[in-house]
Amino acid sequence: MMKAGAAVIDITPPPGLAMSGFAARRLPAKGAHDTLTARAVVIGDTAVVVADVIGIDAKMSARIRQRCVLPAGNVVVAALHNHGGPVSMAGRLGIAADPTYLERLEDACVAAIDRAAASRRPATLSVGQGGDPGIARNRRHPGGLVDASLPLLRIRGVDGDMIALVTAYACHPVVLAADNLIWTADYPHFVRMALEEACPGAVALFMTGCAGDANTGHSTHASISLGANPDRSFAAAERIGRAVAEAALASTEHALSGEVSARNGTVLLGFERREHEAPEDLEQSWRREAIDAEPARKSLLDFWVEWVRKIAPITPEPLAVRVTVLDWCGVPVVALPGEIFAETALHIRAVFGPAKPAFVIGFADDNPGYIPPKSEFGYGGYEVDEAHRYYGLPSTFAPGSAEAIVDCALRLLKGD
Length: 416
Known about the structure:
This protein is α+β, with helices and mostly antiparallel strands. It has 2 domains: 3-258 and 321-383, no CATH class; 276-310, no CATH class. Helices cover 29% and strands 26% of the residues. It is built from 9 helices and 23 strands. It has helices at residues 58-67, 99-118, 187-198, 234-249, 279-292, 295-310, 342-349, 382-390, 401-414; strands at 3-10, 19-20, 31-32, 37-43, 46-51, 75-79, 85-86, 121-129, 137-138, 151-157, 162-169, 182-183, 203-208, 214-215, 254-256, 260-269, 271-272, 319-328, 331-335, 339-340, 359-361, 370-371, 396-397. Strands 1, 4, 5, 6, 8, 10, 11, 13 and 15 form a 9-stranded mixed sheet that branches. Strands 16-18-19-21 form a 4-stranded mixed sheet, covered by helices on one side. It is globular, with a radius of gyration of 20 Å.
């Protein structure tokens, strides 16, 4: 019989550490609304660990996989991508990371996997597909594509007690905005809380889907503000999180049987420069604009000036990224790096058909930034033209990068 286990480790930073996720926010955290965690689920000799941070870079991910008790190729290290957490990647997103906290984060992810592995016991698995909770919106195109899939995997011990519930949804965890100065896992905290209330004693694991172009309805540039917005509050986060959980819990259960496996692939991503102006002209233009800019916009421009001076002159080498496919008794877990768009996820889902529960997640094993599909380059915008500056990259990923990731995922799903 299959064996499974789960574990949770507290990774809440102390007050006073820098927060990550909004260029407009420069003040440190004042306290915590909810406990930030690293959560792991182990099924057989495979595992997914999700940490409540904006990203975990490839080097840390590799160390976590090598240090834990399971085979490194069988482990996915993912970030929740909440924007109410600490700086978690050195050299990215504009603010220096605290080395002590990075060590704590890495150790906690290893500990979560190892504890989950140590707690494994005979288990049964069932899966269902929740209905569309109607939360996610395409933030680039009104009425545009979203990945509305809401799978729920239930893992029970043979005594009937729930060990873990695993779900995923493709919506940016940015209900709370740049004015928030309190540690929080955002709406996924409330998803997990509602799932655990429904099944006392279980560990709820939430994985963030391909949410690069999806949030609850505001534009990306709406986050370049320190003004309070009643629609971006803890009350709103709770309403959204509970709606997602209720839709997942309403899914019909289908018992699973079969084997567990893991396959990995590597994709080399090239770069393409989007800025056509000379670096010195860009710097002068941004410095002039910053003189009269309101504080939040000035903060962003300061990031860009620093980028154009130090990072823009670099000629980048192609970046190797990892794609992993876990097979949990017939349920695929497709783990992709970075900020992936709905179109990419839907191309992968087309292989399964709309009725098959499957997990297609982003922010896994690295978060180097946005990886737009070819169709989005003509529209430009923050995700295509600007975000690479905030991520510390000299250029955006070249057209065709998302499609190369899809090709790799499809090969792995076919067993190639």
